[in-house]
Structure formats: C-alpha cells, structure tokens
Design a protein that fits this description.
Blueprint: H1 3-15, H2 20-33, H3 40-45, H4 48-58, H5 62-76, H6 82-86, H7 91-99, H8 105-119, H9 125-129, H10 133-142, H11 150-163, H12 170-175, H13 178-186, H14 191-204, H15 208-216, H16 220-226, H17 232-240
C-alpha cells in the first residue's frame, strides 16, 4: 500500500472508528506519518487533521488521544501550513482538551504544543486567542505550580511565549494570573521549562505597566538565580529581560 493510500485509509476509518483498537491504530498511524515533514501537506489536504481532531473529541482512550494530539502538533510544526490548519475545524478541540483539568496530562501537553506551533505565525493569534486559549493554557500551567508535571508548564509556556510577542494580548495573559506561574516555572530545575518561562516573561516586559507588576510578583528571584546558569541561552534571556 502506498503512503497516499495508507493516509486515505486512515482518514476514512477515522471518520467512524469502530472501537478502541481501531482508534489506536488510526491515531498511531497518523502520528507515525506525521514524523515525516514531507507528508504534512498531504496530511492536511487529505483531511487528516480534521480526522485527528474528531478522534481527539470522541475517543475516551487516553492513548488514542495522545497520538492524535501528537500528530496534529507535528503537522503544525510546518509553518507554511499553519494558516490552513487554523482555518480547519480543529481549534475548539485543541483548546477544550488543554483546558480540561480531568484530561490526560500527556494529551494536554501535546495539544498545547500544537497550539504553540500554530501561534508561531502571528497572523493566527486573533483566531486562536478568541477561542479562549489563554485561560486554557493558564489552567495547564497551574499543573506544575507545585513542582509536578514540569512538561505541562513547558508546553504551556511555549504557547504563551508566542502569544506574548503580541503586546495587545499582554493584559489578558497577566489578568489570568500568568506572572506568578511563570516566575515559579522559571525557578524550577528543568532548563527547557526555564527557557520558555523566560521567553514568556521577556515578551510581557514589552508592556511598560506590566514591568512593575513583575517586580511585585518576584521576577528578580529567578533572574538572579538563572544569571548563574551554565546554559548560555538562558543567561542571554536573563540579560535581555
């Protein structure tokens, strides 16, 4: 079976999966195909992304949900396809899953990664923010506030950092309580989480009135701590803030 036939088969089966076994086979198959960037355009044009969003919404199986979310995130890593993906009926499923506190943690992380990839294109900001993605991402960010699920914080901060490149959304982000959570994440012992937290805080610093709020919320603590980091990229972010 050719790759195109395989893709079309997954799309057809994914519209009406018969059982959990079927859901897992389809979502895993899509996830495997999505590791090849050369197939991303075909995956979008053949209806694969909508099929994955449908699986994410109807499946009660966490493994199927994880692979479906991962396949969407991988496909959204191709920047030239982001606008097309945003125009498909997928955003509601992604945002709802991220904001569902009872949802599978890994599935939520992959959905946040998908949103972060889509938000890398500034032209997509308005469409995604209007789907209430900011409160959903803050809910995910709260999962790591006590040291648990640092990966959740990393993916949430990644998406928030891309929104924070747009000053018009800074007040919304801060209004949801992001500063305290990002400061706490920046103080954790995971370098990837630290880096994305700092990127988010750096973006928010672009609004003058927010800088004072950051000082009040303890931003100096992680900045002093991370200025001694062995990671040159982290030190660079600290110096910019």
């Amino acid at each position: 079976m050719t790759i195109t036939n395989q893709l079309e088969s997954f799309v057809a089966r994914g519209r009406h999966p018969r059982n959990v076994k079927d859901q897992r086979e389809i979502s895993f198959g899509f996830a495997e195909l999505s590791t090849n960037a050369d197939l991303h355009e075909r995956l979008v044009n053949k209806g694969g992304v909508e099929t994955l969003a449908n699986l994410l919404g109807i499946s009660q199986d966490s493994e199927s949900q994880q692979f479906a979310a991962l396949a969407i995130a991988n496909t959204a890593s191709t920047n030239s396809l982001c606008k097309k993906i945003v125009n498909l009926d997928v955003l509601e499923s992604l945002v709802a899953y991220v904001g569902n506190e009872a949802g599978d943690p890994v599935g939520r992380q992959y959905c946040a990664m998908a949103l972060g990839n889509l938000l890398a294109d500034p032209d997509n900001h308005e469409s995604i923010v209007e789907m209430r993605c900011i409160p959903a991402l803050i809910t995910l960010l709260q999962n790591c506030s006590d040291g648990r699920e640092k990966e959740s914080g990393t993916y949430a901060a990644f998406a928030i950092s891309n929104i924070a490149t747009n000053c018009s959304y800074h007040e919304r982000i801060v209004g949801e309580g992001a500063i305290e959570l990002l400061v706490a994440l920046a103080c954790c012992d995971d370098e990837e989480a630290q880096r994305h937290a700092l990127l988010s805080l750096r973006g928010l610093c672009g609004t003058k009135c927010i800088r004072q709020k950051m000082l009040q919320k303890g931003i100096l603590d992680p900045l002093i701590l991370l200025s001694r980091s062995y990671d040159k990229n982290i030190v660079k972010e600290v110096s910019i803030i």
